[in-house]
Design a protein that fits this description.
481 residues; alpha/beta; Fumarate Reductase Iron-sulfur Protein, Chain B, domain 2; FAD/NAD(P)-binding domain; 3 domains; 5-stranded parallel sheet; 18 strands; globular
C-alpha cells in the first residue's frame, strides 16, 4: 500500500475529454490519457483492502491493488508484468470496459471509487511508449495446430494464449481486417484502429497467422477444414440482430445498428462499402431505438456525420443516477450512464414503446410511440409493462437505427454444416470445458454465452485456450483465466 492515507488526501479525478466542438469534426478518440503523475496520484487512493472486492468484480481477476501500488511507487515495469499476466488486451479494456471492478471498489462504499480503468490504460500505454511490450516468441512448439474462427476479443485472446502454449495458431476472419466487433462495431472516437493494428503486429511476430477475407464455410468443405487442425475454437460472436417487427418496418431508412456502425467504421478507415447502400445521417432527423452502449455509439456517429437532430429512445424506465436499495454495494448497479456521445447533444426519452413506422413515398418519416410504465402486482412478481392511455406521440425521423440487441450467432453456414447442438437461446451448446457437441471443436465468447461485455469475451477466450491446451496435451500450462 503506497500511501496509507492516500484515499483521505486525494479525491477522484474523472476522465477528461477533448472539447465537443473539436471532436465532432473528426473520429479521433475523445478521451484524453491522463499524465503519469496524475495516474500515480490516483493510484494512491487504492487502500489495498484485506478483502479486495475489485478482484471479485473483475471477471479477469486483475491484480488491481498490486499494480496500483507499483504505479504509486513508480514501478511501471512491475505494474505492466502483473497487468499482462491477467489480460491479453488491456489497451482495449482500458478504453471500453464498463469497469465492473470500480463498482465493487471498497472505497466506493462511501466515496468515489479508485480510477481503476484509467490506471489500467496508463500502465499499458506507458508500456508501449517505453518499449516494454515486445514479441514473446515461444521457446518450443508442440507440433499441434489450432484454428480460431473469428478475430474479436474472444478469438484474439484464445489465439494469444494458445500460441504462448507452443501451438501453431491460425485465426480466420471474414472481414478484410482483424478485430471483429472491436474494429467494425466500435467507433474510432472510442477506439482508434491503430490500437488493434499495433497489437496484431506483435502477435504476428510471435507466430500467430491471420487469414482475412475468408468465410470458412464458403471456402473450405467442413471435412477439409477440420482435417488440417488438431482443435478448433469458434469465436464468431452473436451477430443476428433483434428486429422490431411492427407496422411500417419495410420502409426505407430503417437499419440495424451494426449495419450502420460497420459502414461508418469502414468509411473512416478508407475501406470500400460494397455491402449495400450507404447509410449516412447528414442533414437527417435520426432516431436511435435502444438505450445501451451500441445505441450511444450510433448517437456519436450520427453527430459526426452531421445529423440535423438526434433522438434516442429506450423502452425501460430512466435509471437512478446513483445506487438504490435494489443495487447495494458491491453488486454492479443499473444506473444512468451519460456517455461522451450524450454529452455532445441530442435528446433521450425513456419508457417509450415504438408502435409503428409511417412514411411517404416508401421512406420512413415518423415513428408513432406511446409512454409505458412497469407495474408489480405484488412484491414477488416481475414488473409488467402497461401502456399509459392518452400518452401517444410521434417523432419525426428520416433515419431510424435499431440498437435493441442480438439474438445469437449466425446458425446458417459453419454451425449448420458442423451440425453442432445449440442451447435454448440458439448459442453453441458446450460442456463445462467449453467443448461443443463435436469432439475437438470448442466455442468462446458471445457465440457461446450470448451477447455480453468485451471483458467477458476475453475471459471466454482465455478459458477456451486453457481447455484446448488441456485437450491437446493432457494438462495445461496456461492460467485458467
Amino acid at each position: 500500500m503506497g500511501d496509507p492515507k492516500g484515499f483521505l488526501k486525494t479525491k477522484r479525478q474523472f476522465s477528461q475529454y477533448r472539447p465537443v466542438k473539436e471532436r465532432l469534426a473528426d473520429f479521433r478518440e475523445v478521451e484524453i490519457l491522463p499524465a503519469l503523475s496524475q495516474s500515480r496520484e490516483q493510484a494512491a487512493r487504492c487502500m489495498d483492502c484485506s478483502t479486495s472486492f475489485c478482484h471479485w468484480g473483475c471477471p479477469l481477476g486483475n491484480y488491481i491493488p498490486e499494480w496500483n501500488d507499483h504505479i504509486f511507487n513508480g514501478h511501471w515495469k512491475k505494474a505492466f508484468e502483473l497487468l499482462n499476466a491477467a489480460n491479453n488486451l488491456p489497451e482495449i479494456t482500458g478504453r471500453l470496459c464498463p469497469a465492473l471492478c470500480e463498482y465493487a471498489c471498497v472505497l466506493g462504499f462511501n466515496d468515489d471509487a479508485v480510477t481503476i480503468r484509467e490506471n489500467e490504460l496508463a500502465i499499458i500505454e506507458n508500456a508501449f511508449d517505453t518499449g516494454l511490450i515486445k514479441p514473446s516468441i515461444p521457446l518450443m512448439r508442440t507440433g499441434k495446430k489450432v484454428a480460431v474462427v473469428g478475430s474479436g476479443p474472444a478469438g484474439l485472446s484464445c489465439a494469444a494464449q494458445l500460441n504462448q502454449a507452443g501451438h501453431r495458431v491460425v485465426v480466420f476472419e471474414k472481414n478484410n481486417k482483424v478485430g471483429g466487433i472491436l474494429r467494425y462495431g466500435i467507433p474510432d472516437f472510442k477506439l482508434e484502429k491503430k490500437i488493434i493494428d499495433r497489437r496484431q503486429i506483435i502477435w504476428e511476430k510471435e507466430g500467430i497467422k491471420f487469414i482475412k477475407g475468408v468465410n470458412v464455410e464458403e471456402h473450405l468443405s467442413t471435412e477439409e477444414f477440420l482435417a488440417q487442425y488438431d482443435a478448433v475454437c469458434l469465436a464468431g460472436g452473436s451477430s443476428v440482430p433483434r428486429d422490431l417487427k411492427i407496422k411500417g418496418r419495410q420502409l426505407e431508412g430503417i437499419h440495424f445498428a451494426m449495419d450502420y456502425l460497420v459502414q461508418a467504421n469502414k468509411k473512416v478507415s478508407g475501406e470500400k462499402i460494397i455491402d449495400g447502400k450507404l447509410i449516412n445521417a447528414k442533414g437527417k432527423k435520426v432516431v436511435v431505438i435502444g438505450g445501451g452502449d451500441t445505441g450511444s455509439d450510433c448517437v456519436g456517429t450520427a453527430h459526426r456525420q452531421g445529423a440535423s437532430k438526434i433522438v434516442q429512445i429506450e423502452l425501460l424506465p430512466k435509471p437512478f443516477e446513483s445506487r438504490n436499495q435494489d443495487f447495494p454495494w458491491p453488486v454492479y448497479p443499473v444506473i444512468l450512464k451519460n456517455s461522451s456521445s450524450h454529452q455532445e447533444g441530442g435528446e433521450r426519452y425513456w419508457s417509450v414503446l415504438t408502435k409503428k413506422f409511417t412514411g411517404k413515398n416508401g421512406k420512413v418519416k415518423k415513428i408513432a410511440c406511446i409512454k409505458v410504465e412497469f407495474i408489480k402486482e405484488n412484491e414477488n412478481s416481475f414488473p409488467i409493462m402497461k401502456e399509459i392511455p392518452g400518452s401517444e406521440f410521434e417523432i419525426e425521423a428520416d433515419l431510424v437505427i435499431l440498437a435493441i440487441g442480438f439474438l445469437g450467432p449466425q446458425q446458417r453456414g459453419l454451425l449448420s454444416k458442423l451440425n453442432l447442438e445449440l442451447d435454448n437461446r440458439g448459442n453453441v451448446k458446450s460442456d463445462k470445458k467449453q467443448m461443443s457437441s463435436k469432439k475437438g471443436i470448442f466455442s468462446a465468447g458471445d457465440m457461446r454465452r450470448g451477447q455480453s461485455l468485451i471483458v467477458w469475451a476475453i475471459v471466454e477466450g482465455r478459458r477456451a485456450a486453457y481447455f484446448i491446451d488441456e485437450y491437446l496435451m493432457g494438462k495445461s500450462c496456461l492460467p485458467f483465466i
